[in-house]
Write a structure and sequence with these properties.
Layout lengths: L2 H15 L3 H20 L5 E5 L6 E5 L2 E3 L6 H28 L5 E10 L2 E5 L4 E4 L15 E12 L2 E7 L3 H11 L1 H4 L3 E9 L3 E8 L6 H6 L4 H9 L4 E6 L4 H8 L7 E5 L4 E5 L5 H5 L4 H10 L2 E5 L1 H15 L7 H9 L5 H4 L4 H8 L3 H28 L19 H6 L15 H5 L13 H5 L7 H11 L1
Parallel strand pairs: 6-8, 10-11, 13-14
Antiparallel strand pairs: 1-2, 2-3, 4-5, 4-7, 5-6, 7-8, 9-10, 12-13
């Protein structure tokens, strides 16, 4: 092979396989070097180089010039294997570098086949995998179908590159908005936050840097023309577009749309917001299976708890009764806990001893003991609540949330939809008896309610609660 032919082959491989010319030249040099060593022995001082301009191969054994064309068949076969390996490595590296830079970007591909629910998608020169878990729930694909997805992950597996795609990641919705809405693509409108439960609902917060452009209206389009294309791609997934605001007092009501909000209380120490609504807006604010409040919480980055005015008053009274059981607690400290948004023993356990000492004006040792008491009390209340639930008839239509436990962003939803609760792992925590002596208000062989352990709740629904307990019996 003359130099011109070698340069033409190198240029062709460079364009077809997207491999650097220098890498190809180095691979050929290594192959000829190996072939020459096979022929003359590795102990010989052999040097091989290729002129990058003319394509001529120069091989020397010491001062003796070697003609590569005179090498034997076995040496040539070894050189071929080395070249193939080098080219595969270079191709793998080039593919990896290309797609790792595209991580989070939207790609188009064609479904080639299915393996155990996972779809293999052709992206042109490369193949990617769309796992079953990254497909939108309820959707089905078929061979030959064109699909859109985002690059979720890129990994090297031996000499191959494994590209993972996703249609459930929030970035998929973000890229669809950038494709469909020119104002987002040119940065006139910015996507501030996005929360999604794939296949069901998504919330997206947008803002405009141009006061003349309505960010929400531009995303929806005339008669919903723009948003319709995105919803169709997502298989009918519901999308709420809300206006971003830096003030949480405004942003949280926006995020909870379409529910009407009465008032918002912010508690920065816990990262919690208590939102008050009227009774007729309660189910709308929570959403189906707590979906609305859960997505709103992800959107703003705060725990959101939905309550009516009566529920908040009851929660405050219940918390006051609990906190007064803490040894050596003062009324001022109880009020301080309530003002900071602590409504259960479990809330107190989220503070570090130093934070508790600063808030309560205690020494760090006293703060540590207080937190230990709260942990043990929360565990005790939870155990009593579980025992009470186990004793209820199986036909009972209502469930009571574990008293004394910290409310999650969808705590009201957990009350209405018990299947959303997550089991709390059992942990070895100090008991009340081990910390502060035996309790005289409870017996280990009996299943007592929280009211029996810590005193009757003096809230406005105390009589109704007793009446309900009598009916339950």
């Amino acid at each position: 092979m003359n130099g011109a032919d070698l340069l033409r082959i190198v240029d062709l491989m460079h364009r077809e396989k997207n491999i650097s010319k220098e890498v190809i030249f180095e691979g050929i040099e290594a192959a000829v070097q190996l072939a020459t060593e096979k022929q003359y022995g590795e102990e010989e001082d052999i040097q091989v180089s290729i002129n990058r301009d003319s394509g001529e191969i120069h091989a020397k054994k010491g001062e003796q010039v070697i003609d590569p064309e005179l090498l034997g068949r076995i040496a040539a076969q070894s050189a071929k294997q080395v070249m193939i390996q080098k080219i595969r490595e270079a191709e793998c590296n080039a593919t990896f570098d290309e797609y790792i830079a595209m991580k989070g970007d939207l790609v188009h591909g064609t479904v080639q086949r299915f393996e155990g629910g996972a779809a293999t998608v052709s992206l042109g020169k490369s193949e990617a995998i769309l796992p079953r878990g990254e497909q939108i729930p309820g959707e089905t694909h078929h061979v030959g179908e064109r699909v859109k997805a985002v690059v979720l992950d890129v990994r090297k597996v031996g000499q191959r590159v494994k590209i993972i795609l996703s249609r459930t990641h929030p970035d998929f919705v973000r890229r669809l908005f950038e494709n469909e809405i020119p104002e987002i693509a040119d940065r006139t409108i910015e996507i501030k936050a996005l929360a999604r439960e794939a296949g069901y609902r998504a919330k997206i917060a947008v803002s405009s840097i141009d006061l003349k452009v309505d960010c929400v209206g531009a995303c929806v389009g005339v008669r919903g023309s723009r948003i319709k294309n995105i919803v169709d791609e997502l298989g009918g997934e519901r999308i709420d577009i809300v206006r971003w605001n830096d003030s949480l007092q405004v942003m949280i009501p926006n995020a909870l749309q379409p529910a009407q909000i009465e008032e918002v209380f912010l508690y920065p120490r816990l990262g919690r917001a208590i939102v008050l609504v009227k009774e007729d807006q309660l189910s709308l604010a929570i959403g189906r299976r707590g979906q609305n409040v859960r997505l709103a919480s992800k959107l703003v980055g705060w725990d959101i708890e939905i309550m009516t005015h009566d529920e908040l008053n009851e929660g405050i009274e219940r918390a006051e009764n609990w906190f007064r059981q803490i040894p050596e607690v003062t009324n001022e400290l109880v009020e301080a806990f309530i003002e900071e948004g602590f409504l259960s023993y479990d809330d107190l356990t989220f503070l570090e001893p130093a934070q508790m000492a600063e808030l309560a004006g205690l020494s760090e040792e006293q703060a540590t003991n207080l937190i230990a008491f709260a942990e043990a009390a929360a565990e005790k209340v939870e155990q009593d609540s579980r025992a009470a639930k186990a004793a209820e008839p199986e036909t009972s239509a209502t469930t009571t949330p574990a008293e004394g436990q910290r409310s999650t962003p969808s705590s009201r939803a957990a009350e209405l939809f018990p299947d959303e609760e997550s089991a709390k792992p059992e942990a070895a925590k100090p008991t009340l008896e081990s910390l502060f002596g035996p309790e005289t208000t409870s017996k280990p062989e009996e299943s007592l309610s929280a009211a029996q352990v810590f005193g009757e709740t003096s809230g406005p629904n105390a009589e109704e609660s007793k009446k309900d307990e009598g009916e339950g019996d």
